[in-house]
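JOB MANIFEST
job_type = single_chain_structure
chain_count = 1
residues = 316
[input]
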Amino acid sequence: MVAAMTSLTDLHIFTEPQQGASYDTLLAIAKRTEALGFGGFFRSDHFLSMGGASGLPGPTDAWVTLAGLARETSRIRLGTLVSPVTFRGPGLLAISVAQVDQMSGGRVELGIGAGWYEAEHLAYGFDFPDAAKRFDNLADQLAILDGLWKTPTGETFSYTGSMHSVNDSPALPKPAQQPVPIIIGGGGPTRTPALAARYASEYNVAFTPVETFTERKQRVEAACAAIDRQRSMRYSAAVVVCAGATEADVERRAASIGRESAELRRVGAAGSADETATTIRRYVDAGAERIYLQVLDLSDLDHLDFIADAVAPLLA
């Protein structure tokens, strides 16, 4: 069944603050995101810049940021793509996410993954075990989050895992949503689809060609069928965006993030409004019900205006 994109709310703005952004900068982007009618504001959860960026003024904690934005916005969805399980234990993460969900009135979504960027772990003292243990960590954390949030108030929750265990937890606080939507991504052929089928509300494919999106989506669909999953799964794609009314605008925006416009046209949604919408439409036609637009120049609020005014109407 082909997905349908019917409104601007199916487009979400996705930021990479580790490349260099203060809370005030993120607040400005989030407020513009909401004012223009986009569906959500999501951010990466990283502590070290990549690709040669200075990272100034330094990293911001994803869930501290989202807590602030929860009180400064009123409509947009808020979340991470994605929070590595190597940064926070399951108890702390469950408490943080539940509290931010309460603070937002039930607008939070948790993107969660095994973690991959070793350099930031070394830079800030986070343990970075091998890939197998990181996936064991992810499996335990998902089981614990699910258990803590579903346990009725007044009862306790226990779980014994290979990496994490909890014993007689009061399982508090409770999030405003039941359940908090969990987003899982990644390209693992077996464990990732199985975990997504069991725990996720959404499966995300980031920065890959449409053909790869389709292959990974089919794996998750098969995993859902294998356990006779009854609730629906949303599929989403993330793409870098670099759009403009003129070629000069496109070139300027590409240069501001240290990229070439030709390369962005190949790997992202870039160019004129028509070109950008055409790329997004390919993912929608392949089954993506939500699109995360990775905006890398967080000082360029006019970029959001152009996407809302010129690109989004072409998708309706």
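[summary]
The longest strand covers residues 234-243.
The chain has a mean pLDDT of 96.
exit_status = 0
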